[in-house]
Amino acid sequence: MLRRFYSKWRAFSWKTNSNKEITANTPNKPSSSLIGRDLYEPQQITDAEIETLIWTAFDLKRQFSGKRKKSHLLEGYRITFLSAPTKTYSEIMTSSAVQMLGGDIVIVQKSWEKSPDIPQLGKMISTLCSDMTVVMFANVHENIKYLADGCSSPVLCLCDNMFEITRILADLMTIHEYFGHIEGLRLAYVGPIHAITNTYIAVLPRLGMSINYFCFCAHDQAQSPATLDLGMKLCTKNGTELKECCNLKEVLYKADIIATSQHDDTTNRITLESMNDAAEKWMFLHSLPRSKLEVEDEVFDHPNSRTWVSSNNKVWATMAVILKFLREYEPTMEKPNFAKKNIFVSSNFSKFKSGNIC
């Protein structure tokens, strides 16, 4: 009981600053504590904290992967899940993550967004001794903010119509495992505007990655990511490139990582032949589920495809976020090297091409 009370007190004391946007990042100093803070937008965590979460995820993967092991790291903690009808995999994955950490789970109704007073719902959940609320999916991003306003304990959103932070952390783990670094790489996104697109643009430039994106037009209406302006500012700050492309050949040109999501535009289907325009050591990612129209089997099942690896890494990324936002934890393994060795980035390198919308 004392431990539960202490964890609630810590969560409440940190909550007073949880809604403040954190952008400062001091080199060579440890990141600030994540305990008790919310996470539903990438802007809520610093560059150093992103690296710390990836590092923690690698550490947890090393400890738990392939083992039927249960720890006591979150013993005495209760996590409330706000479920979603279409997110069965996320619910299974997150339940497994919490159980491996030794925490208790309470699953709440799937229609929480229909509540007449969402802040009041958040207050009720945190009052009933919940140490964290994990939202599987939200149709409206603003609803997460309303929920967090009512909660006195941290709120974590796995996915909504704007962002999907834990998936991008998993992708970054996969990219690092494949290339040995993150800085200096180029990702190409092909497909419709998606929460993943917004999150890529809001996160990758901060770690030294450039982005090409080709987002299709729907009903003759132009589409640009909601985080485009933020991405341009981040690229200016970090000396990276954000390039909007108008065809498949252009977006794939010299890209190290090719990512896509489900769509039915077969004219822009990714094929093994189209991969000839990508970098020699390309890597493929798919957000899942797949419809088979957006990418051919030869690419999806290629040895360079890391879709299922990234899907598995999402377990460790989710574990890392839940753990670090609830209690102090220091990884026991050496911190990965995210920077590319001997890389030189000119201050004039940043270029933007935001007007060429198809």
Automatic annotation (TrEMBL):
GO MF terms on file?
amino acid binding; ornithine carbamoyltransferase activity
What protein name does the entry list? ornithine carbamoyltransferase
Enumerate the Pfam families for this protein: OTCace (PF00185), OTCace_N (PF02729)
Which of the seven top EC classes does this enzyme belong to?
transferase
Q: Which InterPro entries match?
A: Asp/Orn_carbamoyltranf_P-bd, Asp/Orn_carbamoylTrfase_sf, Asp_carbamoyltransf_Asp/Orn-bd
Record-annotated Aspartate/ornithine carbamoyltransferase carbamoyl-P binding domain positions: 37-177
**Keyword Transferase carried by entry:** yes
Would you tell me the Gene Ontology cellular component terms?
A: mitochondrion
Q: Which UniProt keywords apply?
A: Transferase
- Where does the source fall among the domains of life? Eukaryota
Family to which the UniProt record says this protein belongs:
Belongs to the aspartate/ornithine carbamoyltransferase superfamily. OTCase family.
Which EC number(s) does UniProt give? 2.1.3.3
An example GO BP is: citrulline biosynthetic process
- Indicate the segments forming the Aspartate/ornithine carbamoyltransferase Asp/Orn-binding domain, all copies: 183-323
